[in-house]
Amino acid sequence: MGIHKYFQSLSDLEGIYRCPGVFKYQEHSVASHSFKVATIVQFLATVESADGQEVDWKTLYEKAINHDYSELFTGDIKTPVKYALPKLRELFSQVEGSMTHEYLDKEFPSQFRKVYEERFKEGKDQSLEGRILAVADKIDLLYEAFGEIQKGNPESLFFQIYKEALSSILQFRDLASVRYFIHVILKEMISEEISSHTRIRSITKALLQSKESETARKK
Amino acid sequence: MGIHKYFQSLSDLEGIYRCPGVFKYQEHSVASHSFKVATIVQFLATVESADGQEVDWKTLYEKAINHDYSELFTGDIKTPVKYALPKLRELFSQVEGSMTHEYLDKEFPSQFRKVYEERFKEGKDQSLEGRILAVADKIDLLYEAFGEIQKGNPESLFFQIYKEALSSILQFRDLASVRYFIHVILKEMISEEISSHTRIRSITKALLQSKESETARKK
Amino acid sequence: MGIHKYFQSLSDLEGIYRCPGVFKYQEHSVASHSFKVATIVQFLATVESADGQEVDWKTLYEKAINHDYSELFTGDIKTPVKYALPKLRELFSQVEGSMTHEYLDKEFPSQFRKVYEERFKEGKDQSLEGRILAVADKIDLLYEAFGEIQKGNPESLFFQIYKEALSSILQFRDLASVRYFIHVILKEMISEEISSHTRIRSITKALLQSKESETARKK
Amino acid sequence: MGIHKYFQSLSDLEGIYRCPGVFKYQEHSVASHSFKVATIVQFLATVESADGQEVDWKTLYEKAINHDYSELFTGDIKTPVKYALPKLRELFSQVEGSMTHEYLDKEFPSQFRKVYEERFKEGKDQSLEGRILAVADKIDLLYEAFGEIQKGNPESLFFQIYKEALSSILQFRDLASVRYFIHVILKEMISEEISSHTRIRSITKALLQSKESETARKK
Amino acid sequence: MGIHKYFQSLSDLEGIYRCPGVFKYQEHSVASHSFKVATIVQFLATVESADGQEVDWKTLYEKAINHDYSELFTGDIKTPVKYALPKLRELFSQVEGSMTHEYLDKEFPSQFRKVYEERFKEGKDQSLEGRILAVADKIDLLYEAFGEIQKGNPESLFFQIYKEALSSILQFRDLASVRYFIHVILKEMISEEISSHTRIRSITKALLQSKESETARKK
Amino acid sequence: MGIHKYFQSLSDLEGIYRCPGVFKYQEHSVASHSFKVATIVQFLATVESADGQEVDWKTLYEKAINHDYSELFTGDIKTPVKYALPKLRELFSQVEGSMTHEYLDKEFPSQFRKVYEERFKEGKDQSLEGRILAVADKIDLLYEAFGEIQKGNPESLFFQIYKEALSSILQFRDLASVRYFIHVILKEMISEEISSHTRIRSITKALLQSKESETARKK
């Protein structure tokens, strides 16, 4: 009934995997995702700041770190559910809210309750920080889908997720950081060299030939 | 858009793990759980039948095999949620229902739609078969919790689950099979010898001594 | 020494993996396989029944649920062994039989011994139910091989298994359910869209273009 | 060659496990650890702030998020090495530094190089933020060791790590947050109820008795 | 059809796990086991050599490295089977022999066939090297069982395996290396300090007290 | 403080994975790698021997079995580090050396210290056995990279490793065994049939047609 339980619970987020029930080559936990989102917001806000925006960094990082803590109470609902039923999603948010409230009342020492209530609120509001969080959350999802597609995952769901995530990101094109993402990062992503099996043969042949001519020269 | 997708989706149930977000020594998938429940109802109904009850075996097995198929659409919501909020659970049932309906409309050839709609309905009704399913579902949950406790899992949640599951089973004491479970099976379970570290020393010593005296005798 | 041990042993089937010793992207346990076979016989028998056949549903489901329980005693012998040496396979069946017998004598309360001896017998006999089981067992194997091939598994063994499994299924073409499998399900399977890496580029470009023209229109 | 590679590399931190080569019941990746450290510094700094200290929150969170990024280049060296040879550790820090430098030169667009050079520097300096990071890093290590000990890990290394981590934390007793940790959190941790096997019997008996007396009363 | 396939097959031994179908905290592959047996024979033969025995080292190491290669064709049959039915075990040996023969005929270049036929033969003969192999194989099995017991595995099977393995080792007491094992190594094993949960409290208290008195002294 | 700890430590090598921090379809432990290297040197030395070279087999096998034991103290440093900084690698070798020395002093009974000091020394010297070990170590690395490329791993690192490993092997072309590797084994490797998705369709069609014509013939 205190911070010990809170610290201990962080480890449980390492055991909640995103997108359960679809075959994946690589699993991603909610804990890992939160770390990646925090790192992505760091970059996006750096671009915003360079573009002249005033960033509230403390709020930004706290939004990123805490944005999925409530999945501890609910787990990660299946992606198809999320995309098929916006109503359920909203309702889920409400339940998450009330469970978080209950958790704070039961587990948190009273002197920290207020500040954590603020921190555990839904972070994706209309502020600059809320919008950066929304973008970063989708960028990490896009990378998860891209990673599966690149590894040859035949599930068409990952194409859907890729599309849905990119589509959400594009809605924030008024942000300088999103424009940087589209014009620079995304370009790098889709032009990535595709590892092909034939490449191994050419490497092999090239090496063998260079060594052979080297040997010939020595004679 | 057909039975191929349905058959393929069965494999996704192998990737949905029960009780996500709590440390476990052994994971159990929804597919494995369904197999175990089917095997448990087989035994319980055998007892009921010996007790003179009329069992509708076809219905019983179909209830067991299909009872968690809808988790494909929703995932396995976290146990604490299930136990903390009966309202959410109910709501989830509704969502599962409507998603199942939608799935049948979209994926199933029309000639099979009706029979599968029946099969995918909530199975735990007031019929004998529905009650046997309810008991078997809790017996498997009890075994999952028992397995973790026996292996030394320090999470107190498993004691809660054990207690909750046993408590639910006891509500069906009017069934002969539940009485058999309580008076015979549960008794075996709780009297199980506890592997202790000291045992290895006594085995070692006993073996060494028997060999030594054997050697002595030979001289 | 009783049903407790029997219930507990079900969990061990979750730890026996099929086709050991070959690289797989996705593992399948004997427990999961049994669940899938039970679900597949349910469908095949539905087709048979619609075709006018009399199905003994109780027997059918019990055959499916129990058909690999004896692997608990023996493990899953390696697929190449199974296919290379029919004699060994037969012999293995015998050993499985005698071990099952011994297990029943030692572990099962006498009042259930007879009914379980019947249930643990080799299920793939010449009855309609035995033949449906034989087909369903091969359909699940076909899906396992298909899943690996689709994910890019370079082991040629999976092509062999695919071929062998399909070949076995085709021997039951006199069954209406097998004809449905060939003419409808298999067709869906082999015409499945192949996820290609290029697809991600086209999705990306299409989205970007539609957004750009949308932006242009707004000006 | 750009931020795409940087974002993609975050996922590699999900595949570097801490304390390699010792048996663990639960693995922790560098990515998960970074998330947990960020969450722990959030709490510690909240205590410091309540105590009247001026916290540079932006710097604090960036220290936490980035503090192990360089393990991407070097992996997580084995704990015994870390503790046995302080010289090697220092040398490793140097190598990490030069590799990080090289990485920034090669991969990062020039406009972000300077700010990230600052961010990727060793964070555990003598500032309040650097000291909070040092404490949080050890608190998470303490929890990792505690988790293994609690689950029954027989490796004595985890006792060593527990001791070493706690000892390091105690060196920062002048911080209000460390005093809170010692007097409140640590107390909760060591008084945690130990799950014992006997507890399951008492739960079982209590439930059975309450139900029996309930039944008796009804008659 | 050649050495390439042979080299590639070594990796398959990494995917065959010993004792399938029993819950284990730690899995051991046939590849890992072979490495450990090779390392154990190295030690045992060092003792024999010091005792004045003539060791044929080449033969010894080849026996160790190759002794389970044939499991590639057959998998690791379940331990209970091995112990319950000596007849089956013998028969399995025969099958392994004939499959190995067939494999050599089909896969191996003729110039190496004879030497590998010798290497793939059952290694546990009556020679000194064969007996050392038999002992080392059981020592590794003993360590596998000990590791599970020490971690708290409740399966009584591991006590059986421990007992059976130790019993087999003791039959070779005429070997100097086995006497060394019994009088020195086994003694260390069973006197190993048992990690207890209470230890963490005493470490904590001791550290806190030493720090407190240190603080008091400074004043 | 004796051979028991040494035997027990072998199991820790099963938990150190090679190339940490890069996505892999298949993990390889240091224990498995050591087994494979021992098996590969066995073959290479067989070729050398047939070529008329005098092989010191005892030394050869001990070099292979022990060559990575020191990773127990240091873990497997990340491949990019190894390849980027030869200086660090050398320094690491020194540290490994001194840690091994310390380990022998602390853990090993004095009568075995000298022989194990010899065994734990860097094995890749200029002797025939040292050179065979160097080649075998790279051959196994080549197979690891080939395995990932063949399974579709998009990480370009594996092409680098493949190239670097092959390049190292080619430097030993004066060995008859390396020439055999290049002219026979490598040829088999790169001409390996690539499993393609289309193959499954042709198998399916061929089988269906053969069965249909068979059916036609029967009429």
Automatic annotation (TrEMBL), chains A, B, C, D, E, F:
<dbReference type="InterPro" id="IPR003607">
    <property type="entry name" value="HD/PDEase_dom"/>
</dbReference>
<dbReference type="Pfam" id="PF12917">
    <property type="entry name" value="YfbR-like"/>
</dbReference>
<protein>
    <submittedName>
        <fullName>HD domain-containing protein</fullName>
    </submittedName>
</protein>
